[in-house]
Description:
The chain is mainly alpha-helical. The protein has a domain at 58-73 and 384-483 and 494-525. It has helices spanning 31-41, 64-73, 89-96, 103-114, 118-129, 134-149, 219-238, 247-253, 256-261, 287-304, 309-319, 328-336, 368-378, 380-387, 391-403, 425-442, 447-463, 501-511; strands at 116-117, 151-152, 155-156, 181-182, 284-286, 337-338, 343-344, 347-352, 358-362, 404-407, 410-414, 468-470, 476-478, 485-486, 492-493. Helix 2 (64-73) runs antiparallel to helix 18 and helix 16 (425-442) runs parallel beside helix 18 (501-511). The chain is globular, with a radius of gyration of 22 Å. It starts with 30 loop residues before the first helix and ends in a 14-residue tail after the last helix.
Amino acid sequence: MPFAIESPIPHSSIKSTMNQFSPHIPTLALTLATGLCALLANQAATAQEISAPDQIQAATVADIPAIVRAMAQNVTASGMPRSYAEPSNAYYREIYQGREYAPEAVIERLMIRYELNIYDGAVWQIALSLQKHSAWQTLVDAHTQRLLSGASGNLGLLAQSPAFTYNGQSVVGSQAWLFRSIAESYGPMTDPLGNSSVAPPGFPQASHGLHKTDFRPVLGENAWATIIGPLQTAYLKHGETIPLDAPEMRLAVSRLASFEIMQDALTGGVFYAPTGTSDIQEGGISAENNLSLLAGLRMLREAIGERDPGTTKLIDALVTRDAKGPGIEDYFGERVYDPAQGILSSGGFVSRDAEGGATYVAYENLAVDVQTWGLTILGAQWVDAQFGAGTAFTVWNNTKARAGVVHDGVLQGVGYTDGDSMLSGEWTLGAVLMAKEVAETYRRSHPEWARQLQQDADAMLLGVQALKVINPDGSIAYHYASMDGPTGFGWMARRIQHTGATNGWMIFALADFNPFVLGGGLSAR
C-alpha cells in the first residue's frame, strides 16, 4: 500500500498525555501534497531498469524463509511491524534533489521510519502465520491485541465521534474505524536525514516538533486489518472451527455495525471514509475498498457458520439486497462494470441535490488493482454471468494493454494505471493470483485463454524478480516499485524495500495462497 503522504493533517488540540489520542481534524489544503507531486513531476523519474527475462532468476518456495525473515525483523522494539525498510540517506538526497527538508519530504521519511499501514500489517500477519514459527506467531498475536485495544504505545488508533461522523451518525469505542496508518506515539520523532526533531517551516503544528501527521480512517485498510488478516491467522492456528471468543474473531466482528452505518442506501456500496477525514470526496465509494470488505465478509460468514445467527444476518444484509436496499454484491453487479472501456470502474461518488435526491457518478479512470482483485474476488464465472461471456478475459486483456509493463515483447508485470512504465511489485503479484484464478475458471471452456493466463502469471512472477533485493544477512525483500514517482492515485511509489505487502504477496504467490479465501485455497478450484 501507499506512502500516505498526500494528506498530512494538523490537529487543533492535543491531549497533554497523548493517551488514547483522538485528534480533531480540520479541512486541510493540499499544499504539502502539491509540493511533493510537483517535486517529483519536475524531476526525471529515477528508474530501476527492468532486466531482460533471461537475466532474472526465478523465485521458488525455497526463498520463502528468507523473505519472511526480512518481514519479521523489520519491527519496532516493541514488535510493531513497519511497512518499509528504511533506505539510506543517500537515497533520500537523490530523490529530493535539494529539497531534502521540505515539509512533505520530512513527513515521508518519518512515515517510513515510524509507521505501519494497517493493510501491510494484515498481510504481514498472514505471511508470518503461514510459517508456523512460534516466535513469529507471538508477534502476530501481539499485533491482533494491539488493534483490539485501540491503542499502540501511547497513541490512540480509533477515529471516534465527534471528530468523525459516520454517514450522519456518531460512532465511538471499538466500532470506530482504525486509522489507516499507525505508530507507537504521536511524537517527538527524529528525521533520519538531519537527525533532528525540530520541525522545518511549514510543517503542521511545527511548535510540537516532528510528529505523526496522518490520521485517516479508510474502509479498505479496516477490512484487511479487522477481518481478513485476523481471520486468516486464526484459521491457520485453529483450523476450520475458529472459537467465537478468539481475539481474532472478536476483532473481525467489531466493525460490522459501523460498516452497516456507512453503507449507501442508493448503491449498496460502503462509503470510503467518515466525514471529518481530510481531503476526501464526500459520498465517495471505492471499488477496491468494497472488494476487500466483500472478501472479508464472505470469509467471516464462513468462519461463523450457523453458530451466531444474529451476526450472520448482519453480514448477509451487508452483502446482498434486503428490505433496506441493495448490498455490496449489488453495487458490483449494477454500478462498477464500464462496458465502453471493458474494465471495472475504480468507484464513484453519490451526489445529492437540494431536495435530497441522490445520483451515483462513476469514476472513469483505470485502477489496475480493481481489475485484478475484482476478477479474483468476484470470480470470472460471476463476472461473465453478469456482463457477458468472456468479459473477465477481456477485462484482463484491456488492463494489460493499458498498464502492462513489457520488455522486448515479454510481459513483466503491471503498473498502477494507464501508460505506466512503472512496475508495481505488490500490484503485479495481485495480478499473478488473478491470472491463476481466472485460468482455472476457463481451463475447460476456453483452454487457449487458460494457457495465455497461466503464461501471463508465470511471466509476471518472473518479471517482478527485477525488484528483488538480497540483504547482507541473506534476507530477501522486494522494492515497492521500479521507479520513484506518483502512482496516479495520490501516493508515491518508492524504490525501497516493502517488507509489508510486497514481501507478503510474494509469499502468497509462491505458496499458491489466496488471501481472499478462508484458508487460502484458490477459489476457482
